[in-house]
Amino acid sequence: MLGMKCPHCGYHANFTHRWSRKAEGTSLWDYRPGLACYTCDHCDMPIAAVLPDDPGDALNTYWPRRASGKNFPDVPESLASAASEAHVCLSAGSSRGSVALARSVLEAVAKHKGITRGSLKSKIDALHAAGHISEAMSEAAHEIRFAGNEAAHGDLVAEQLKIEDADEIVALMDAVLERVFQEPAQVARIREKREQRNKEDADTGFSDKPPF
Which of 7, 5, 40, 34 is nearest to 21 (CA)? Predict the structure, then answer.
């Protein structure tokens, strides 16, 4: 079964084979590579792919390579829009643009939490000190800061940031947004449902509390 990072939803998921056509022809002039269609088991979105010569090899050529944007539920609209735009830049192959936006999103996260003074380094440290992000997450945030500084102030003649490296930086941005906004919102929804069940049980004379 094919497993890879889905360009649509971003999850590392299994893909279900839907259709394929074997390679045809033998000469350079009449050769037609094998083609296939798969759907992601997580989001059910399709990809088209050129089949490798060895069935056991990974897919190297497939479309789309990246989704044009990404949805960020529970993230404030202004931050979610900028974060989605970072994914749009990735889709267009703009490594500098995506990383610069990821840095801007990180700074906006600090501002949203009331941390407005000092450098981005000090803001990240303040996010950690306030308990908004873990130590490991603060290290990830600093990597976003380093990459963003490099994208904004680096030597344009030097080798630019590779799109694969930018993809990893944007994934770190996603993880920060997940930790700061989406996880607390999910916990709040679960708590609200539990409290609502308890209220309904109390109204009907039932309780989910153990008898000890």
Answer: 34
pLDDT at 9: 77
Find how far residue 132's CA is from the centre of its chain: 19
HEC secondary structure over 68-85: CCCCCCCCCHHHHHHHHH
Map tokens 């309780």 to a residue: 207
* pLDDT score recorded for residue 189: 92
Give the C-alpha separation, 154 to 174, whole Å. 24
In this prediction, residue 110 carries a pLDDT of: 96
The domain 77-193 is placed in CATH, from the list 1.20.120, 3.10.350, 1.10.8, 1.25.40, at 1.20.120
Q: Find residue 49's DSSP bridge partners.
A: 36, 62
Whether 211 has a pLDDT exceeding 60, the answer reads no
CA angle 9, 36, 34 (to 5 degrees): 140
Phi, psi of 37 (to 5 degrees): -125, 135
For the chain, the structural domain boundaries read 2-63, 77-193
- pLDDT tens-digit readout, 159-186: 678 888 999 999 999 999 999 999 999 9
